[in-house]
Amino acid sequence: MRPLTICMLTSSYPKYPGETTAPFIEEIAAGLVRRGHTVHVVAPFHRDVRRAPVERGVHLHFFRYSPVRALNVWGYAESLQADVGLRGAVLAAAPLALGAGTLALWRLTGQQQPATSTVLPACSFDLIHAHWVIPNGAPAALVAWLRGLPLVVSMHGSDVYLAERAAPLSLAAAATYRAAAAITACSGDLQQRALRLGAPADRVAVIPYGVDAGAFQPDPQAAASVRAELGLPPATPLIVTMSRLVYKKGLGYLLEAMPAILAEHPGAVLVIGGYGDLRAELERRARELGLAANVRFPGQIERERAARYIGAADVYAVPSIRDQGGNLDGLPNALLEGMAAARPIVASRVAGIPDVIADGVHGLLVPERDPAALAVAVSRLLADRALAGQLGAAARRRVGQELTWDQTAARFERSYQLALGFKS
């Protein structure tokens, strides 16, 4: 399609190169740039942002919304406490952030084209693309309407969860869906939930995330280097999981599975990489289970180092659940990274995971919240290295065939074509 100029509104973006907050937003934007489009991203300020104005060809615009440090909690996985409830400061920050974001979007999309002279500035953008229907759908819809631009809305998981929880947010989501010319969901589960919230069926497309198969790939040296870094013997069976430490990741159930795994594979070690509100709780639970010597928490790991940790895994675990508030993942990026690295995967049969993992073909799927099933599947792959290798190789093949970021960008182009041809 012809080159487009796209304005994205998001509430999260990796704060510096290699940082792991919402990396899929950066990859979607950069993938579209590689396909010849011009992409501008509008995102809230964060105290840790260290970005140049243009990186990977993406133009970045971070807006400030509060002079009070305690209210700078908008986006960046900081608005929700353990992903199940809003932090108190968010309610105070919301009008500031929504107002500032709307103004930033209005100003950016009002930039004039050369040699134009009109009462209102001519808009040089072709469309507005809002990530997360809540909270960014309404501001984007307003500016799109005022500028006469088509609106594309992408759902990522927590936004639909919030819309399902409160009637005012449900109404806001439904109004945004009606205003959108095209809507995308990263999983079939999110698509169905959006339809129940009022999204028009003919405008919703499932576009799974992709993965950088060059950055995440089989790494024969990773096994030794990561075990040495952790102070483990070279032959230590290693189970790895990478995620934010929040309830919907199901990490407590993986801990509960470890005693049964150790009964079959003494000396196995579980590495839980990532950051989040539940770290202290998970560490305490590991001690209660007598697992202090068999569980490691290396903290937040930047992407290059994370690729080595994933590549070192004998089994890669993604034990996602629907948490106590009803929240669950859309499609975990960490799952796709494990697939690209050709790791044997054990994952829960929830959310978008069955969209990309066929049980017994690309990995083993187990019921959510089932430590016994997790233990059986992990132990099976630790014992059967031939099966583990077969599943890992099939997972990487699927990534190459269907799940690269360039393929994701091409799918977004089709949604853009739909939006550009849309007549309300």
Overall pLDDT metric? 93
In whole angstroms, how far apart are the ends?
Answer: 22 Å
Radius of gyration: 22 Å
Residues in helices, as a percent range: 40-55%
Number of DSSP E strands: 16
Structural class estimated from helices and strands:
alpha/beta
Q: Sum up the overall morphology in one term.
A: globular
User: Largest beta sheet: what is the strand line-up?
Assistant: 3-4-2-1-7-8-9-10
Q: Give the biggest beta sheet.
A: 8 strands, mixed
Q: How many helical stretches?
A: 15
User: What fraction of residues sit in β-strands?
Assistant: 15-25%
Stretches with pLDDT under 50, minimum 5 residues: 113-122
Write the layout of secondary structure elements.
Layout: E1 5-9, H1 23-34, E2 38-44, E3 54-55, E4 58-63, E5 80-81, E6 85-86, H2 88-109, E7 127-131, H3 133-147, E8 151-155, H4 158-165, H5 167-179, E9 182-185, H6 188-197, E10 204-206, H7 222-229, E11 238-242, H8 251-264, E12 269-273, H9 279-288, E13 295-299, H10 303-311, E14 315-318, H11 333-340, E15 345-348, H12 353-356, E16 364-366, H13 371-383, H14 385-402, H15 405-420
Parallel strand pairs: 1-2, 1-7, 2-4, 7-8, 8-9, 9-10, 11-12, 11-14, 12-13, 14-15, 15-16
Antiparallel strand pairs: 3-4, 5-6
Helix pairs in contact: 1-15, 2-3, 3-5, 4-5, 7-10, 8-13, 11-14
